Amino acid sequence: MESTERHQKSEIPFPVPTYRFNQRNEMFKRGVWDEKKRYLLKGFSEVRYQDKMGYRKIDYAFRNASWALEWKYGMGNARSNFGLYEWEGVPQRMRPYVESGDPVKESPEEMSRIIKKVAQFYGASLVGICSVHPNWIYSHEFNVMTRETYPIEIPEGCNRAVVMALEMDYDAICSSPTGVAAGATGLGYSKMAFVANMVATFIRGLGYRAIPAGNDTALSIPLAMAAGLGEGSRMGLLVTEKFGPRVRLCKVFTDLPLQVDAYRPFGVMEYCKTCKKCAIQCPSQAIPRGGMTTEGPTISNQSGILKWYVDGEKCYSFWAKNRMDCAHCIRVCPFNKAPGIIHDAVRVVIKKTNLFNSLFDRIDTLLGYGRPIRPEKFWGSNSEE
């Protein structure tokens, strides 16, 4: 194991935590077991319809329906190794094919190409492959269904991860913090379960082990960074080159021999030093405006790495007050842009130099990017509310 860890560290050109995070301390889990924070879960879960667009019964129904696949069949936010995220098993009709013949023996390079093709066909917007560092796996799982905490380990030999990003709708997310934006988030989670399950089932059909995961089991952001999908940011989210932070992440751990991708930074962290839009626009002021530190503000942070730490307690407090989740930081991020020649050209410049970051930040503000898109636009309403 020691030689494996040294090899993995050599492949990872960014800091890795010195310890494994206990999922019990993740902010949404604390709303279940922490008596002092339980009021947040209660407030967020409380239904309070309004006449205002984005908060009507229609909007709540829209949000809840988008989560249906995750809530009923995925369950990645509740526990690991369950539902569509179960670690073993294939459909009954597949068993004769899985149980007969030897495992597929393509080269790691060819198999990686095939896996990416398959994942994109099933619905992934971006796909990358990385080695798995042990400290990215949670030390313990917190099971929301039973309220138990217990150690978690992925099977020995599953040292590769297929990491997938799924794009969320631009107009919907930009209506944050309404039910329309929450619907885009829920749909992302339902798609995560759908895609991760099928990619895992495909790999099992080749004769190898596959462990699908959504938000459960392991940290998604460093895995996505190592897989070449993007960079970390001031807001604590992954920022991709094509979609900015407007993605949801899932992954599949496997012992299938695969060629890993490289970390591909493109200027996000440098840009974040100049741009503070997410911190300024955050309704709860949970995102720091100052420099990076090595210590997070609460037990919900995995401290020890020099970065920006988001205060999950403040963030979740706004969710409880709003009774909808919030994506303001995603909405206002300058990297959150619909496709376009000018936007693509700016990204190229940012990747090559940080000399124009302040100028680009001012232009972004002057052009009005980051302003909310009213939910009326999504619903096609002429209402002036």
Descriptive report:
It is a single chain. The protein has one domain (2-379). The chain has helices at residues 2-11, 27-33, 38-45, 57-66, 68-74, 95-99, 108-122, 170-173, 179-205, 220-226, 268-274, 277-281, 312-322, 328-332, 341-352, 357-366, 375-379, and strands at residues 126-131, 140-143, 148-151, 160-167, 210-213, 247-254. The chain has 385 residues and is of the alpha+beta class. A hairpin with a 4-residue loop joins strand 2 and strand 3. Helix 3 runs parallel beside helix 13 (312-322), helix 5 crosses helix 9 and helix 7 runs antiparallel to helix 9. The longest helix has 27 residues, at 179-205. The protein starts with a helix and ends in a 6-residue tail after the last helix.
